[in-house]
Amino acid sequence: MSTPAHNSRDTQGLNLGFIAGIAAYTMWGFFPFYFKAVQDAGAVEILAHRILWSVPFGFILIAFRRQWPDLRRGLTDRRVLAWLCLSSFVVALNWAVYIWAVQIGEIYQASLGYYINPLVLVVAGMVFFGEKLSRLKLFAVLLATCGVAALAVYGGVFPWISLILAVSFAIYGVVRKRVNIGAIPGLLIETLILLAPAAAYLLLITSKGTSVFGGSEAHLTFLLVMAGPLTVLPLLCFALAAKKLQLATVGILQFIAPTLHFGCALYFGETFTPAHAVCFGCIWIAVALFSYDALRQHAKLSKVAI
Q: Which of 12, 51, 215, 227, CA to CA, is 20 to 30 A from 86?
């Protein structure tokens, strides 16, 4: 029988996890404002700085959380390192396309990509891990597909940015699921793998005088350095949320980010066409069905556990 003190600790843990989850997805959701603020740097330079400055902040968090054994194992285990080499490439592609999408005024497509990502993950789970797809989830996936097709055919715009973001992050999720390593140690190793090409690129543009870092606009230099904590801190919050909350709850919270992306697109004045309305209408219904089914399955599992 649970004691009042035990129940109090559980409640505090859930509250902390909920706050951490909201914080993580809210920070990710407002990323368009950051990438708009540093757009003078260009997408590739921003990506390189994001990789570069994530390394020292990653080491700080590893020291704070005392995860040196995890980091050491990841760096010495050839199988883990091989998987992280693949995931580092995929996450770099995802970051680069997202930054570029924001800078060219395609935040709607970025929003769409992260809306459909959980649905792509469901299909990936079925293909790679033999997970069963409920009828409701299958219908949600088909509805989302119809929405994307409507934007491509009726709107005359093939949402390849959305698909690259969704598929690349799904591949990233599949790879990281296969690797037994924590979120922060894994991210640090990924950025260490990417560090050499990122540093080489920054040295190249600095030698050519085309880098904005360290130039006359000091605020840009500061903002580029902040790419490190802005990359690592949301992941730390996410890791805490995933530890404290049920996965079904985390699954619902993840839709905060693309919803905020959608709001950012409206704020920055991107054109919202009838094709967008049809597409997002299908996606939102699919998301609602997906969330309902996830919560229903979680409730069944909870009853079985009791």
A: 227
